[in-house]
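[agent] plan:
  1. take the single chain provided in the ticket
  2. run structure prediction with default settings
  3. attach structure tokens to the ticket
  4. add a short note for the reviewer (M.T.)
[agent] executing step 1
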Amino acid sequence: MRFRIVCTLLMLWTLPVAATETVAPEAAQSAMPQGSYLGAPRDSYQIFMFGDGLASGVLARLKVAVEQDALIKVDGRTKEESGLARPDIHDWAQALPKIQESNGIDIAVIMLGLNDSQPLRAGESGVAFGNEEWKAAYGARVDELVGILKAKGAAVYWLGLPPLGAKKLDANMSLIRDVQKARVEAAGVKFLDMRAVFGADAKSFQGGDGISLTAKGSDKLAQALLAAIRADIGAAFGSAEAAGLSPDGPQADAPASPLFGQLVSPTDGVENVMRPAYRPPSTLIADAEGNVVTGRVLVERLIESTATGSSAEALFMKGQWPAPKPGRVDDFSAAAMSHP
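[agent] step 2 finished; step 3 output follows
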């Protein structure tokens, strides 16, 4: 009896599946290009967001957006009155190392600047907002923040300030944005232009006070950020394709293999009920519309792909184990068990 069970398990494990061994994992890893912004693919990504009052709304919407995403997790710290101009109110450069010690941060997102249209203190004197000395001093603080995050291996995304309803404040934000963009890009970090995201419909995303954003506006920025990050995650996994793993199954020169739920051969009648055709992780990131394909969605698509009337349909949708051929090692009928 024990022998039969062991043989059955071995037979099921070795049922023909789409060829996935044409490139060994080690070989694929070594052959992958190193140009991805996020480096080598990971099992999961921890996004950590830092910012001010505007960032708090974006962070909240970002958390909602990834609730069903098995690949991405989101956390963050925001201080409504914080910025880079007044470290005496909140010093992000001092706070970051402590946050990094207690959080594994793969992707750091920064959104600051709303409270920074004011003089900077340099030593005992102040530097007037917007002049060249102010730009240099503020840029140095941007450099410091980015340097701290990069030193711990985080991929950094800096969110540019969105357009605001208050005209004078918006003009100041444009100046701050230009300084941030120049310093961030000089450091080799991604700067995401949130002004372009709102486009001509900016007013519909702005709060009535001319400073804040509506929930719709925060969600708009969160979705734009998430799309950029998912694209880079897809690029990291997509490097596997460059190493010879096709997203659509075996390579062209690999032996053909039955699809999920199809007959292995007309004479044998055994079906490939164990696993679907191979798909590299890149296809589990997002579909053409940018929607993540994981968890429940993946299971639903797996069920949809089963052939009607197949053993795969019976097993996975109805819970019916396929009947074995009489006398085969997985035949546990009374007649078969009566023979030693």
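[agent] step 4 note for reviewer: The first helix runs from residue 2 to 13.
[agent] ticket updated
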